[in-house]
């Protein structure tokens, strides 16, 4: 497939213009014109780029790409080495951040819900492009049992702050660094909140507002959207797609 057609395909699927973001979504570094072999991963780290070179991929597709708002604009050091490797090997880099989080089928939130047996009921925020979502556990359970389920499914033991001493029925979640939405979840009377990371104030919010809290890892909660996207592209268009999981304890 030509690069222009591939870009159009992803734009139609993920609709990046529907949500404001912190980095450009879509093609971030231009490489080969013809796209055949794709490597997917959570973050376009040097390790992922080097693996793509080893696999002779012409395209990398990630959730966390480059050129974030607020970062230094100069291309030096780590950024220079990453981009130089892409350019030297004629590899396209595509990044999709919030559009991949919120996609109703392939997105990080949707995929995490599927893995943890959560029924998605809708967005936690008003409007069609809510980043956090809410739903119900298909089988209500205690916070401790739910933490065990997270450990088993994600292969990652979560940070847990259980305060209710009741089974969890309703839950809100946002993969990655979505801990700030706990207050919105609490204001809507939801039993528990799940995300990737925690901040110091998050535990106070959990304690004082009576909402169970789980932080299951930024990387661990965001493996599955980009993996699902790659599988979709392989199935629908016949691309050779390889998902590379560069482990990250955060």
From TrEMBL:
Coiled coil: none annotated. GO terms for molecular function: metal ion binding. A divalent metal cation 1 binds at residues 63, 101, 218, 222. GO terms for cellular component: cytoplasm. A divalent metal cation 2 binds at residue 64. Keywords: Metal-binding. InterPro entries: DUF34/NIF3, DUF34/NIF3_sf. Belongs to the GTP cyclohydrolase I type 2/NIF3 family. This is GTP cyclohydrolase 1 type 2 homolog. It comes from Pseudoalteromonas byunsanensis.
